[in-house]
Write a structure and sequence with these properties.
Length: about 170
């Protein structure tokens, strides 16, 4: 199995050190950052100071003039990664990260059921605002921000799809 990981994530040397916290493993982790198979509970991975996908997406949106209203808004129905405002429209943003397309493209990851849950969370967000700033007449949409990474986790591109979910 580690040989397969070594082929999928070259540079980490998984075939030699088996992923244990050896000096070589820790050096590669510092050099390349965590990859998909690293346990996020492993202290050196948790302490890696790499931008999280939501942070990269947030910076991208802010650079396009969006104002961030909330992040990681959770309800029983699900979670919205970023809530932003563009002019008079409220924008609910789903952030997806991909390293290659072996598991499909990020924009293919929003199923009909997921789209319905996102819409439900969006409506709950607007209802939860006690200040009455958002109401049933507030214009809103659901966008998708796709972050494409190389095998080391370096950001290659950001693809922002407006109106990604049609309701």
């Amino acid at each position: 199995m580690m040989g397969e990981y070594d082929a999928a994530f070259p540079g980490y040397g998984f075939a030699q050190h088996k992923g244990y916290a050896t000096r070589q493993h820790l050096q590669r982790l510092r050099e390349f950052g965590p990859c998909d198979i690293h346990r996020r509970s492993f202290a050196p991975v948790a302490q890696a100071h790499l931008p999280l996908p939501e942070q990269s997406a947030r910076l991208h949106l802010e650079s396009k003039g969006y104002r961030i209203v909330a992040t990681n808004f959770r309800t029983r129905a699900g979670e919205i990664d970023i809530v932003a405002q563009q002019d008079d429209e409220l924008v609910f943003v789903e952030v997806k990260t991909r390293r290659g397309e072996s598991f499909g493209r990020a924009d293919e990851s929003i199923t009909h059921a997921r789209a319905e849950r996102l819409a439900e969370v969006a409506e709950e967000f607007m209802q939860s605002r006690s200040d009455g700033q958002y109401h049933s007449g507030t214009a809103w949409r659901i966008d998708l921000v796709c972050l494409n990474l190389d095998w080391r986790g370096k950001l290659l591109s950001v693809n922002h799809i407006e109106h990604a979910v049609k309701l």
